Amino acid sequence: MAVSINKVIILGNLGADPEVRSTAGGRSVATLRVATNERFQKKDGNWEDHTEWHNIVVWGKDADRCKSYLKKGSQILVEGKLQTRSWEDREGNKRYTTEVVALAVTFVGVSGGDRAERSDVPDHPTEEAHAPKASKPDAGPSSDEDFPF
After folding, report:
1. Three-state SS letters, the chain
2. Is residue 44 part of a domain?
3. In a domain, 65, yes or no
4. If you placed Cys at 15, which of 20, 33, 88, 146 could pair as Cys (CB 3.0 to 4.6 Å)?
5. Is the pTM value of this prediction over 0.85?
């Protein structure tokens, strides 16, 4: 069997407050809309900005932390995997969506001013913001020369 990797790393800003709900079993799930921006120069020499929107799904205690500490505009670092799921819409058409299932979320944009306004924000939120990992992956290639492509 060939080796494959499904890993996504996104550093961006929330486009809206986290939407948090609970499953029938009581497990929290948060949906985040994260924007990443890039600027590039077109052939005519003018610069153009492009915003890409990413749908992020966060489970369990990390979902609860997102609800407590994040708001629209917050900067976060998400490590996760891509997942595509399907469902049927009201007209019976099969629909698909691809989203990032977060394995780790780091609150980059929680500043001292935010902590002063909210006593529930820990002094070091990034230490608490990491989701538990099922297993520790190896470090991966140490340089670009280690990649097979």
Report:
1. CCCCCCCEEEEEEECCCCEEEECCCCCEEEEEEEEEEEEEECCCCCEEEEEEEEEEEEEHHHHHHHHHHCCCCCEEEEEEEEEEEEEECCCCCEEEEEEEEEEEEEECCCCHHHHHHCCCCCCCHHHHCCCCCCCCCCCCCCCHHHCCC
2. no
3. yes
4. 33
5. no
